[in-house]
Amino acid sequence: MSKPLMSKATAVWLVDNTTLSFRQIADFCGMHELEVQGIADGDVATGVKGFDPIANNQLDAIEIERGQKDPLYRLKLKFNAAAVGEEKRRGPRYTPLSKRQDRPAAILWLVKFHPELSDGAIGKLVGTTKPTIASIRERTHWNIQNIAPIDPVALGLCRQSELDTAVQAAARKRAAEGGVMSDDERRKLVSTEQSLGMDADEARVPGALAGLEAFTRRDEEEKSSPADYSDADSFFNLPHGDDDDEDDEDN
Fold first, then answer.
1. SS3 letters for 84-127?
2. Domain map (residue ranges) of the chain
3. pLDDT in tens, 78-103
4. At what angle do helices 119-126 and 160-176 cross, to 10 degrees?
5. Most buried residue among 20, 30, 180, 212 by CB atoms closer than 10 A?
């Protein structure tokens, strides 16, 4: 589905001037629903002036009326004959001058919270080079002490849909390679035998716990065959002697 011109500015106008749902605006502008919600909350596209799609012959007013009456209705972009056969320009992502100083913070956020992403994927999302990513990953960047991790979607460097697609692709690639995912990435535990590449039969108790295991086994054996304490003398461990000797000592 083709997107309207100045899609983010169009989304700003639709949020401010209509009662369309976030999902309807996101589908029409080719954005993520959370990104549209960020525009409504003032966290995304701050300072962007709204772009009227009706005045610019991209959307009919009747489409907005239908969308406001039916939350499941999807807005239809007006046909533009000039856009037929237009190909997307290939090349590196362009980052405006006003946002280029925010790229290190976005790179640090991606490296910290999405370590499965490769340098190439981060470069496509943020529009930076691999040496810059490597310097931040290895903490050799000249300004690393003053860089705080910030979500690139909140900075306006990429869309939430693009970030989700890159993370899912990286997870599928890592799963296909047979790598063991961490608990935060997979949300499930991996057994020690699997993480160490061992068979279940090869798992042994560490040497430091061998003594504890022997002590536990001996204690269980003693419990299984308790001593006979039916006799009071054996219970108190009293010395055995003749009664006459005891009487002589008392005298």
1. CCCCCCCCCCCCCHHHHHHHHHHHHHHHHHCCCCCHHHHHHHHC
2. 7-80, 97-186
3. 876 555 554 555 555 667 777 788 89
4. 170
5. 20
